[in-house]
Design a protein that fits this description.
The protein is an alpha+beta fold. Helices cover 25% and strands 20% of the residues. The chain has one domain (8-109): 2-Layer Sandwich (HIT family, subunit A), CATH 3.30.428. The longest helix has 17 residues, at 62-78. The radius of gyration is 14 Å and the shape is globular. The mean pLDDT is 96. The structure holds 2'-deoxyguanosine-5'-monophosphate (DGP). 2'-deoxyguanosine-5'-monophosphate binds next to strand 2.
């Protein structure tokens, strides 16, 4: 799938649309989800043009991947989520209902998140 330069996160990265930023470095931007599912719900995105987790894992440089996952840890620490716990999640493609075609990790926290998969979901 080709990268869509006009997806909403590309526009946020270009500063065309505002966001509630919580973190930024040379490779990463993190901001609060516009429709939070939990008391803390942050999206962490690479600045590079990657469609999905698959695209990022295949094509991003080692430096981008390392900086990205170090940032996820830093963000969770900064938000006070390490002691109570948090969940990170990436939706890839149709079956996962990925809505925005720019790779992002969701960071959820601020409440008991329950078990990830219910037995009935298997
Ligand atoms: P996903 O289904 O994994 O692609 O989730 C996309 C998320 O992006 C969804 O939780 C809502 C969020 N989102 C969509 N548009 C915007 C926006 O303009 N600003 C912010 N902050 N979040 C957005």
């Amino acid at each position: 799938m080709a990268y869509d330069e006009n997806n909403i996160f590309a526009r946020i990265l270009r500063g065309e649309i505002p966001c509630d930023k919580v973190f930024e470095n040379e490779h990463v931007l993190a901001f609060r989800d516009i429709n939070p599912q939990t008391p803390t719900h942050v999206l962490v995105i690479p600045k590079g043009a990657y469609v999905s987790s698959d695209d990022f894992a295949e094509k991003a440089s080692d430096a981008e991947i390392a900086v990205f996952f170090r940032a996820v840890g830093q963000i969770a620490r900064d938000l006070g989520l390490v002691a109570p716990g948090y969940r990170i999640l990436a939706n890839h493609g149709r079956d996962a209902h990925q809505e925005v075609p720019h790779f992002h990790l969701h960071v959820f926290g601020g409440k008991d998140l329950g078990r990830m998969i219910k037995p009935a979901d298997k």
